[in-house]
Structure formats: C-alpha cells, structure tokens
Amino acid sequence: MRRKSIVRAMLVGALMSVMMIALAGCQSDGISFPGFGAGKISLSNATMCKSVDLETGQPVETGDTFSAADGVIFCSVKVSNATPATVIGAEWLYLPAGADDEAGLLVSSWSTTMEGTGYIPLSIMRPENGWPQGDYEVVFYLDDKEALSVPFTVE
Questions:
Q1: How confident is the model at residue 100 (pLDDT cuts 50, 70, 90)?
Q2: Count of CB atoms within 10 A of residue 132's CB?
Q3: How far is CA 4 from each of CA 8, 12, 63, 142, rounded to the nearest angstrom?
Q4: CA dihedral (120, 121, 127, 132) positive or negative
Q5: 20 to 30 Å CA-CA from 49: which of 10, 71, 77, 140?
Q6: Is the pLDDT of residue 4 over 50?
C-alpha cells in the first residue's frame, strides 16, 4: 500500500514539474478548428503573469509588464476540446525597436499534445545577463497554424 502512495506522489510531482518547465495581462479570442466530438478545438485567454496555479495552470498575478530582473515570466493559455492528435505550440519572441524583421527574434519555442479542455502554463527563465528591455510576444499555434498572440514588455 505504501509503495502505491510513493508511486502516486512521484507521478504527481513529475506532472507538476512538466507543467512548470513547459513554456503569462492581455486576452484574445483565439482561433478555432473543427474537432471531433464535443466542439471546436480552440485556444483562448492567453495571459501573461508572474505565476500560475500549480493544480489548474490558470494565471496568477496577471500583468503585461515585467522587470529585467524577474527570474521567470509565465504565460497561461486555455485549450478547449483538444483531441489526442492536437499539437499546441508556442514561440517566445523579442521585438527589438527599429528591427526590420517583423517576426522578431526567437527566444524559445515549445510544443505538446493534449486532450480535452484546460489551461497550459508556460514559463521562460531569465537569461544570465537579465532580460533585454523592450517589447516581446508569445505566439501560439494549433497544428502549426497561428492561433493567437499575447504581447508583454520588459522595463
């Protein structure tokens, strides 16, 4: 009986670790695709935040302005009606002032699959020299199609 408790605790710990490692306030309506069963597959409520609820993945301490000294920046997005084959991806972009490239500079990218409805928390760690000041954006994708984005600023 004790062995089952230890295994269960390890699985819960691993799940929480994956949630925190996976790549945070503005909201967007998102984009939907026809799904099988319960409704349209969609991403919505992309929100920048200082932390996330570890059980639900929902945003906590929302805001779209961060300090160059902040150790971690979070983003949470709601996924609705995902099928097991749905691929959800994200790119964290730095948008340097005066840059010719409208796409921005890729800071980090991430993808996963998910089934059902729930929040996915993402995070990114501060670079060794701190965050460059300026504008940033997290762009979300559903099956490799841009679904929504959420901007944020580092001061």
A1: low
A2: 13
A3: 6, 12, 41, 37
A4: positive
A5: 10
A6: no
